[in-house]
């Protein structure tokens, strides 16, 4: 049974469910919510790279998400650029700005880095809010076009946009998996575990932290650009600080430093949020204690807690086998 329920089969089943979901559930609202969840999952994977695997908590992630969204919006609405070219440029612009900010931010460490990036994220929000000549300020950008057709394939319906976002999500998960399982990913984990020890064995920690930071901003920019094309309207609130704390909550609940944690955490919290809409603002009174309990008893999230439980169970099984072997040897000797 354990051979049937393995990681690869689980991924295949989840992918089949995601592909068949629009065909099985004829509800546009659920489709809309799930598409948004997929978009935020892409951004959360970026936060997981820098925070979960490299150990640097960046609180400017919502700012980079907003840069990606506004870059695509401005290029398509004001510059009237082709959507796909604008999407590529939005990711490039976000990554370039992220690289410049990372050069300065990564000179700080631990809570100083978190505070610095939080300030950077808020500055990005203020620039979007105040620069009305470029961003339209509180009025926001209206009329952002849907993705341009690719041959006979059009992206004008909610279902087609759902599959487009799903494609990018699967691509992001594949890329993150390859990164984490590579030597570069091992280097990030070494820096997270002990930066001083990583330096003693010859790892260029500053270089790898900067690359990790840039990768995180790339995924944030991609998520923001897809968000802008899906919603078709963006305002300054897309880069406000509460957005990064929502992303951080998704990551902590799912499992920080795990491959499937961002996906599980985002889908779970988004589903709970929609299920508790009738409570309005009071639903946070329920989320707060649940999050505190989860962090206390499962500090590595749902996925991390499951892995720890599985490791303990396997250790007990091995110990039972060892004890049985010892008993059999003792019986033979007698």
Please describe what this structure looks like.
InterPro entries: ABC_transp_permease (IPR001851), LivM-like (IPR043428). By secondary structure, the protein is an all-alpha fold. The protein folds into 2 domains: about 5-300, Orthogonal Bundle (ABC transporter involved in vitamin B12 uptake, BtuC); about 305-334. Helices cover about 75% and strands about 0% of the residues. The protein contains 14 helices and 2 strands. The protein has helices at about 5-25, 30-55, 60-75, 85-105, 110-130, 130-135, 160-180, 185-195, 195-200, 205-230, 240-255, 260-275, 285-295, 300-334, and strands spanning about 140, 235. The chain has a two-stranded antiparallel sheet with strand order 1-2. Helix 3 (about 60-75) runs antiparallel to helix 4 (about 85-105), helix 3 (about 60-75) packs parallel to helix 5 (about 110-130) and helix 3 packs across helix 10. The two termini are about 40 Å apart.
